[in-house]
Amino acid sequence: xxxxxxxxxxxxxxxxxxxYASTEPPKSGGGSSGLLFIGIGAAILGGGYYYSSSGAxxxxxxxxxxxxxxxxxxxxxxLDEIENYNHNTxxxxxxxxxxxxxxxxxxxxxALLTKYKGPEMEKPVLRPYTPISDEDQxxxxxxxxxxxxxxxxxxxxxxMQVGQRLDFKGPLPKYPWxxxxxxxxxxxxxxxGITPMYQLARAIFSNPEDKTKVxxxxxxxxxxxxxxxxxxxxxxxxxxxRFRAFYVLDKPSEKWQGGKGFVTKELLKTVLPExxxxxxxxxxxxxxxxxxxxxxxxxxxxxxxGELAGMLKDLGYSKEQVYKF
Length: 325
Known about the structure:
This protein is an alpha/beta fold.
């Protein structure tokens, strides 16, 4: 439940409270059988015309899934559109080769693996990304990518031009989600670690059968670095009793009224659901290495979550209550 005090951009920490889808016809003499056959055919055709003109529609086709996993190799997608999102982040739209009726094939929660090999690279670079477009979106997917100095994949993406291609493979399954799997989830994120959080939250709130409550804690350097802020604010305004977002800035402006500094144990204790609620609570963590180390401890590999450490362990959460993207 949302009962403890916290903060958001519009108000200070002291003024907030936590609320909370056939056989051959017989041969007989004369031409009568031929006339009969023609008559039957005309009746069938007439019936077909009646069906089509009566307004009845054929059932819709299942969309083609671009990514099917398993033994499927990398799929080359054409870059169709680039949008400058902020000072160091761009939105990239890649078209599906099957055309406008295809979907990605991703599920909640899952990601895609990208591959690029430059002319002077001995080995290709591989990086996972979670699209920000809906899983049912037909014809294309969208990535939101921040450029990191020295980051070979992000730098390559930021130098790409419309018409060029990039290799993708997937889906890469993460945490298996079903509606109402937990009563309350918390999303602790930093930087571009927000994209899998958005994928999960969007799926929850787009499903009228899913009543899960969601709390977001999002750390960034400055206000212009808060990715998908408009989308988060729309969710908060639409579902005020089920979703709250708390932002923390390392270098806030003078007018900033939200949290300042870094994600702290005191903040998490204030805004997160109680660990004693057991299976009803799940905490998801995604961000740069520093965030993992401080909040939950590092995961060992994509298949090994590693031991729980950091703030969440200190606050009494169990390893089973925490998932590291």
